[in-house]
Design a protein that fits this description.
Blueprint: H1 2-19, E1 22-24, E2 36-38, H2 40-59, E3 64-66, E4 72-73, H3 75-80, H4 83-86, E5 88-93, E6 100-101, H5 103-106, H6 110-126, H7 129-146, H8 155-175, H9 180-194, H10 198-211, E7 229-232, E8 236-238, E9 248-251, H11 256-260, H12 263-270, E10 276-285, E11 300-310, H13 315-333, E12 340-345, E13 356-364, E14 367-378, H14 380-384, E15 389-391, E16 396-398, E17 401-408, H15 409-420, E18 421-426, E19 429-434, E20 445-449, H16 455-472, E21 475-477, H17 483-493, E22 497-501, H18 505-508, E23 510-515, E24 521-525, H19 529-537
Parallel strand pairs: 3-10, 20-21, 20-22
Antiparallel strand pairs: 1-2, 4-9, 5-6, 5-7, 8-9, 10-11, 11-17, 12-13, 13-14, 14-17, 15-16, 18-19, 22-23, 23-24
The chain binds glycyl-adenosine-5'-phosphate (GAP).
């Protein structure tokens, strides 16, 4: 199964490169980790996705306002949004070779990790009195290891840690009946631990050193992981000629803040009534510790985001509403619904601004991972930016709450490629094709003269090509190789229709249109081709 999945990923990556969808970034200089360049077909696919999203969520609605904010914003934005303080990932380093990774990316067996974490606590809780006395030294040594971690903890960290381990505290409480001494010890340890969020870090290091070798094949270091430390993922740069801290700016890690900071502008210009939304498509940048899995986790990517502002009491209703809108989008764009799952994000995994989040996950060949997110951001952002709204209905000043559907363009591309990739087998021959929905297919149709070297066929075919290109834009001229080869090539890039001009066309003005998915061919009059395609596209 794993091999099949690896093969599928390899097939898609190689198809993307060979056919001009996606190339490695800065490839001729050996590449740059976490960056990819979109080639002619890739950029068209991406543009089609973005324009479908814009049509559905902006143009066809009466309550949505589009913006396109600057990527570089005043640093105060990122202080107010909490990103300077908290937009960080844990990073561990192999002390043998220096490789840095995010722990969750090397822990293959997440369940085993959680089990180990819980076992550790339960061990403390479940010791018999006799064992406890023998165990005293062990506990001492554990505590002495943890102690240095306590130094730099904030109230906020303490709170989130306590939330994260509250099920364990419940267990401790249920043990109260068993033995007082035992429980006192357990509580003491938990109390000590609960002073520091870094407890998770300690367990992570303990687990990694016990179970995970360094993935660097030249190293394979054992028992050599450092304790995780937090690493801010925002790219920093300087603005202007003076290189001091006042000139520090960040490349935005989410498009969302561009909408929050324009909230007042849009309200002043358009006076929208609640609920209403701001929408934006644009680049975001994250200094990911371990970019991986092709375009799944990259350092430069695009987001399609909406900040939907509403009265606080309506948040649950609109959370549900936007959940359904996202599902409708997933189906509409052509992502395989049978591979999509909703995950309720819990406790410490929630982003610093969110009260409730659902991740829409997709079964990628490299595991079930986040495709999109839907978050209830409360009034976190508007409040921190000191923004409010004069509610004319109630004649009061309120801070609207926010529901945020956040969709990655690049993750849409990869999920689409994986959903659309099919193979037909007839006898020995395998026919790979991308069954893209025609609205998003990079090429709507390809036009060919049956024979490349017959001027009369070329001339006619070129007229058809020009006619279709003026209508649809995304039309390809293809006269390379024999007709079978052309069909294979167009199938592989997901072109829904191939149009061929042959000798009969010269007398009956009919062309052959071949369907990508069924291989069926139909004769259609030249003047009916546009309607034929439009009918099928709708
Ligand atoms: N404004 C909220 C926000 O940015 P997020 O869950 O961090 O939330 C939203 O990101 C979406 O952006 C993700 O669901 C994913 O589709 C995309 N995304 C995030 N990080 C990415 C990365 N490193 N590479 C590609 N896409 C990414």
């Amino acid at each position: 199964m794993q091999e099949k999945n690896d093969n599928l990923m390899e097939t898609i990556i190689s198809l993307c490169k060979r056919r001009g969808f996606i190339y490695q970034g800065s490839e001729i200089y050996g590449g740059l980790a976490g960056t990819y360049d979109y080639g002619p077909l890739g950029v068209t696919l991406k543009n089609n996705i973005k324009s479908l999203w814009w049509k559905k969520f902006v143009e066809s609605r009466e309550d949505m306002y589009g913006v396109d904010a600057a990527i570089i914003m005043n640093s105060e934005v990122w202080k107010a949004s909490g990103h300077v303080e908290t937009f960080a990932d844990p990073l561990v380093e192999c002390s043998k070779c220096g490789l840095r990774v995010r722990p969750d990316q090397v822990i293959e067996n997440k369940e085993e990790f959680l089990e180990e974490k819980n076992k550790w606590i339960e061990d403390v809780v479940n010791k018999t009195l006799e064992e406890v006395s023998n165990w005293h030294n062990e506990i001492e040594s554990i505590l002495s290891k943890i102690k240095p971690l306590y130094d730099s903890i904030s109230e906020e960290e303490r709170k989130s840690f306590i939330e994260a381990i509250s099920p364990t505290i419940d267990k401790v409480n249920s043990m109260l009946q068993k033995s007082e001494k035992n429980i006192n010890l357990a509580k003491f340890i938990l109390d000590e631990l609960s002073k520091s969020d870094k407890y998770i870090g300690f367990i992570t290091q303990y687990y990694l050193n016990k179970f995970v070798l360094c993935p660097n094949s030249n190293c394979k270091g054992h028992d050599s992981w450092t304790i995780p430390r937090m690493f801010n993922m925002m790219f920093r740069t300087q603005i202007g000629a003076v290189e001091d801290s006042s000139a520090t700016v960040y490349l935005r890690p989410e498009t969302a803040q561009g909408m929050f900071v324009n909230f007042k502008n849009v309200v002043d210009s358009f006076h929208p009534k609640l609920p209403f939304g701001l929408a934006q498509i644009g680049k975001a940048f994250r200094n990911e510790i371990t970019p991986r899995d092709f375009i799944f986790r990259v350092r430069e990517f695009e987001q399609m985001e909406i900040e939907y502002f509403l009265r606080p009491e309506d948040w649950e209703k609109y959370f549900e509403y936007w959940k359904n809108e996202i599902l409708e989008w997933i189906e509409m764009v052509g992502i395989d619904m049978s591979k999509v799952y909703e995950l309720e994000v819990e406790g410490a995994d929630l982003a610093h601004y969110s009260k409730r989040t659902i991740d829409f996950e997709f079964d990628f060949p490299f595991g079930r991972k986040e495709l999109y997110g839907l978050a209830y951001r409360t009034d976190f952002d508007l409040k921190n930016h000191n923004l409010s709204y004069q509610d004319e209905e109630t004649n009061t000043k309120i801070i609207p709450h926010v529901i945020e559907p956040s969709l990655g363009v690049d993750r849409t591309v990869i999920a689409l490629l994986l959903s659309a990739y099919k193979e037909d087998k007839s006898g020995e021959e395998v026919r790979p094709y991308l069954a893209f929905n025609p609205t998003i297919a990079p090429v709507v149709c390809a036009v060919s003269p049956l024979l490349k070297n017959k001027p009369e066929l070329r001339e006619y075919a070129h007229l058809v090509y020009r006619m279709l290109k003026d209508e649809f834009g995304r039309v390809m001229w293809d006269d390379n190789g024999n007709i079978g080869k052309r069909y294979r090539r167009q199938d592989e890039i997901g072109t829904p229709w191939c149009i061929v001009v042959d000798f009969d066309t010269l007398t009956d003005n009919q062309v052959t249109i071949r369907d990508r998915d069924t291989g069926k061919q139909e004769r259609v009059k030249k003047e009916d081709i546009i309607d034929y395609i439009k009918d099928k596209m709708n």
